[in-house]
Design goal:
With 252 residues, this protein is of the alpha/beta class. The chain folds into 2 domains: 8-170, SPOUT methyltransferase, trefoil knot domain (Alpha/beta knot); 187-249, no CATH class. It has 10 helices and 7 strands. It has a 7-stranded parallel β-sheet with strand order 3-2-1-6-4-7-5. Helix 1 packs parallel to helix 7 (154-170). It is elongated and about 90 Å long. The termini are far apart. The mean pLDDT is 88.
Length: 252
């Protein structure tokens, strides 16, 4: 087996331990490739290798399968790694550090960047990793699933872990606003919109009764300030009010 050199590509190797179905191997490869991971090792696949069902399910990630390393045992698969995580959805009665996928992949990113080869082990579909496999790991990744239904598909677990790796490695912004050919409105534009609505609503007798009028106007202005309006939004809302006034005046 080709050994992983320290810092090689600065990404962990994902180890599928005795996977049972070719389809799940292919789906795992696809999940890895979605998030830029390409180092897979497979320990004793039940249905042999190569596996056409795995290739079909990989759907474009075939190169990852072509380069996957086939191993006979867990020690062989992780022997050149400095730090190993074992994924599990259930407590196994072993004294080990336990991390969420998010925290584990942050650690993996730090270790890989420092030149320490990292492996993440995933167990077979039927029952997950055996204690003998987990005992060889430095730490456990515990996926916080529903305790009443702790079964997690192999490819799902790989996808979740791969996503957390990408978040840790790429520094993904957790929230953004995609602007569709417009910009956010400036305060002066919001002010003019508020004045337009207040003027027209005042003419329509909306601010009633008189003792409550000032509080109603403040609440309306506060509403405008809370709304992240774009210039297109402001133009549309001006148009809405103008059209409503025109419609009201048609019969006069």
């Amino acid at each position: 087996m080709e050994r992983m050199m320290p810092g090689d590509d600065q990404q962990p190797v994902f180890v599928l331990v005795r996977p049972q179905m070719g389809e799940n191997i292919g789906a795992a490869a696809r999940a890895m490739w979605n998030f830029g991971l390409e180092r897979m090792r497979i320990i004793a696949p039940r249905d042999g290798w190569p596996n056409q069902k795995a290739v079909a399910m990989a759907s474009g990630a075939g190169r990852l399968l072509d380069e996957a390393q086939i191993c006979a045992t867990t020690p062989e698969a992780i022997g050149d790694c400095v730090y190993v995580f074992a994924t599990t959805a259930r407590a196994r009665g072993l004294t080990k550090p336990v991390f969420t996928p998010e925290r584990a992949m942050r650690m993996a990113a730090e270790k890989c960047a420092a030149g320490a080869p990292v492996a993440v082990m995933f167990g077979p579909e039927r029952a997950g990793l055996e204690n003998d496999d987990i005992a060889r790991a430095n730490a456990v990744i515990n996926v916080p699933v529903n305790p009443e239904y702790a079964s997690l598909n192999l490819a799902q677990c790989v996808l979740l872990t791969s996503y957390e790796w990408q978040r840790a490695r790429a520094g993904i912004t957790p929230e953004r606003m995609d602007m569709a050919k417009t910009d956010f409105a400036e305060q002066i534009e919001i002010e003019k919109l508020a004045e337009h609505y207040q003027e027209r609503l005042d003419q329509a007798g909306f601010f009633y009764p008189e003792p409550k009028a000032e509080g109603m106007k403040i609440s309306l202005r506060n509403m405008w300030s809370r709304m992240p309006l774009t210039r297109a939004d402001v133009q549309m809302l001006h148009g809405v009010m103008r059209q409503m006034v025109r419609w009201k005046n048609r019969g006069e």
